Amino acid sequence: xxxxxxxxxxxxxxxxxxxxxxxxxxxxxxxxxxxxxxxxxxxxxxxxxxxxxxxxxxxxxxxxxxxxxxxxxxxxxxxxxxxxxxxxxxxxxxxxxxxxxxxxxxx
Length: 107
Prior knowledge:
This protein has helices spanning 2-30, 38-58, 63-75, 78-92. It has 107 residues and is mostly helical. The chain folds into two domains: 1-34 and 78-94; 37-76, no CATH class. The longest helix has 29 residues, at 2-30. The two termini are 34 Å apart.
């Protein structure tokens, strides 16, 4: 299970770094800070899947709440939306530490 969490976290961190590099090059070209929102990136990659997810959320019980949450998340920068869960998953998949304290002779 830890391997799956680490691999998924590493993939998400890698995608976040790709989006960060794209935003960095756009910022250098525009001479201002430019962030690509998740909604813009998703629309450029595969627009029908965004419509399908919106339709799926519209058919659920808490459709208004899910729609508001989805609209909020789609406005955030893509590197942040992918990077934060990637870091969390990578940390959840790491091996727990055995020794918490260092003895004086080990320094």
